[in-house]
Amino acid sequence: MFANTWFDGSIELWVELLSPLKALGRPVEMLEVGSWEGRSTLFLLGYFPEGKLTAVDTWEGGAEHKHLADLDALERRFDHNLSAFQDRLVKRKGLSSVVLSGLASREKERFDFIFIDGSHFADDVMVDAVMAWQLLRSGGILVFDDYLWRNERYGWKRNPAQAINLFLRLINGDFTLLHVGHQLAIRKTVSIARYTAR
């Protein structure tokens, strides 16, 4: 039960990006920041039959979604769409800055794949990126959605690319660029210890 098919255009790219993770020899640990109705969530849990996924969302939509008539049903649609995967899905409802901070405080919470598709505000994207990077295992893949998304009305503060570009400058030398398009994907090449050492 999906009201939109925004994610479907990414499936071919994701099959290519994610195929190396099938060789891990253990269940793939995934984190999704911004799950909406669960279309990408459903794909990931289907692609990795033993994988486990943590979905983070407020299920309230962003400022650009406030005109949608059925926004109140968003979380119910997510729950319905993922009902068959409750044993491999952890749902964390709340602001990503709060939820990711909580995950970072738990030493065991580390992920092989992280998808960032939450707020379009540059400052929110930057916070999500920095926190997600701490949670990503070395060799793990980080994908940003809406890299080419533009909203001229709000200027650079409302465009994810500004934050993503700055973030990539901050971690220069610690990643391999895998794809640039509507989505931007990188692989982490540095040990997480560098980012957690005090």
Gist of the model:
With 198 residues, this protein is α/β, with parallel strands linked by helices. It is 32% helix and 21% strand.
Task: Give the strand content.
Answer: 15-25%
Radius of gyration, in Å, reads: 16 Å
Largest sheet: 7 strands, mixed
Number of helices: 7
Q: How does CATH name the architecture?
A: 3-Layer(aba) Sandwich
Weakly predicted, low-confidence segments:
none
Q: Order of SSEs, N→C?
A: HEHEHEHEHEHEEH
What is the CATH C-level name?
Alpha Beta
Structural class: alpha/beta
Number of domains: 1
CATH topology: Rossmann fold
Distance between the termini: 46 Å
By CATH, the superfamily comes out as: Vaccinia Virus protein VP39
Descriptive account of the structure:
- With 198 residues, the chain is α/β, with parallel strands linked by helices.
- It has one domain (29-192): Rossmann fold (3-Layer(aba) Sandwich).
- 32% of the residues lie in helices and 21% in strands.
- A 7-stranded mixed sheet has the order 3-2-1-4-5-7-6, with helices on both faces.
- Helix 4 packs parallel to helix 5 and helix 5 (122-135) crosses helix 6.
- The longest helix is centred in the middle third of the chain and has 14 residues, at 122-135.
- The mean pLDDT is 87.
